[in-house]
Design brief:
- By secondary structure, the chain is α/β, with parallel strands linked by helices.
- The chain has two domains: 16-61 and 347-440, Aspartate Aminotransferase, domain 1; 83-345, Type I PLP-dependent aspartate aminotransferase-like (Major domain) (Aspartate Aminotransferase, domain 2, 3-Layer(aba) Sandwich), CATH 3.40.640.10.
- Helix content is 33%, strand content 14%.
- The protein has 13 helices and 14 strands.
- It has helices at 16-28, 64-67, 76-84, 114-124, 137-151, 168-171, 178-181, 215-220, 251-264, 330-345, 348-365, 388-400, 423-440, and strands at 50-52, 58-61, 130-134, 155-159, 190-193, 232-237, 267-271, 295-298, 305-309, 371-377, 380-385, 403-404, 406-408, 412-415.
- The strands form three sheets. The chain has a seven-stranded mixed beta sheet, sandwiched between helices. It has a four-stranded antiparallel beta sheet with strand order 10-11-14-13. Strands 1-2-12 form a three-stranded mixed beta sheet.
- It binds pyridoxal-5'-phosphate (PLP).
- The site of pyridoxal-5'-phosphate has 15 residues, from α5.
- Pyridoxal-5'-phosphate binds at residues 66, 136-138, 141, 163-165, 238, 242-243, 271, 273-274, 299.
- Keywords: Aminotransferase, Pyridoxal phosphate, Transferase.
Amino acid sequence: MDRKTAEPVVTDIPGDRADEWVQYHHEFAAPSTYVYEFVWDVTSESIGPFCTDIDGNVLLDFTAHVAASPLGYNNPKVTRAMEGFDIPEPTKIAGQDFYASGGWPPEDPEFPGPTQLMERLVSASDGLDQVFLSNTGAEAVENAIKICYADRGHRGVTFDGAFHGRTLGALSLNRSKAVHRKGYPEIPGVLSVPYCTCEDECTCGWETDGPAGNALGDKLHPERGVIDPEEVAYIILEPIQGEGGYRIPSDRFLEDIATIRERYGIHIIADEIQSGLGRTGEFWAIEHTPIEPDVIASAKGLRVGATIGRADVFPDETGRLSSTWGAGDFLSALQGVATVDAIEEYDLQENATRRGKQAKELLSDAYLPGVEDIRGRGLMLAVEFDTKERREDVVRAALSHGLLTLGCGHKTLRLLPPLDVTEREIEMGVELLAQAVQDVA
Ligand SMILES: Cc1ncc(COP(=O)(O)O)c(C=O)c1O
């Protein structure tokens, strides 16, 4: 498949083979999240945003596996690194007390692994100097809140609309959809406050006189507050809310959170699991804000979970954090390093900014009946509809035109093209989406 000329070609989706595959899958798989019956064929040709399904349909994938494949399919930088690693059995490195090298010297080994991934993350994260690796985003969040609790306080602050993962600790911080949380126990002491996205007139109580007058500032205020800031271990925040609907916080809200951190010394955890790794045009989306995070949680495109923090926030005692795979899985970390290096080598932050702007301009010029808002930063893009039904119909119609998209929030559709998406691919994606919206209308 030649990326320069590839185009989506759909004959029948889901086709007969996909139907059969899905049926077989569900004989064994527990019910989970399934958006549509698209069955990627890993044995067929795929490159950049183009992939082939089990019935031979070629699709333009603007989901990037919910940001877990920031470079799309078969990026040569990643595939070369993986092909070069010719140990036949995938090796996992067990436990915190095991080290493994991918050669010599440690600063530049033949195969960079978990140690080099941690080094890359530290150098990408101003003021943060240590990393604990795990497997998933939820574990990265779980460890982030653990280190904050170990350092100070027994309360946490989360925001309406937040999503932080599905382990019980991370789940206790979720405020996006009831289905994620209902019936499960929660860790105590978690307070939720509005995540303000109001640009002009604020309707969520954040607009008054700085942090002493906003929703969280009021609760922490030394005289009229109800919570002693010393009791608060962390404020966890997505710099742009993901599952909650690609919501972009207002500047005022961000300034207030920065002031609250400065005033009370409460740790800020930036959840960059969806927004990080260059997607918004900065390496971390929090860099668009005045907030200095004390801890960053990352995962997805890194292929491992990573809790990145200041050395003084991590507990000193050994054994406070650990996991069988807590030193990182070598092959996954190798892929993570190749991804981080590709972002720098190919200027992908710059590309994300440029192509994101192009996408927003084209979407704004397109005839899109039923669309209420077009927003995003870099390639973390969203189109909000007037109703949830319309959004769902558009996701299905886009698929029938060969474009893969995802919903988020209540009635929003998200677009996550690969970070190296080209001008031609953005034009194609917007055109297919516009056709889908018009079909539904
Ligand atoms: C912002 C955010 N935090 C945490 C998670 C959980 O990550 P994982 O699914 O790897 O556990 C996700 C997953 O979508 C996410 O978007």
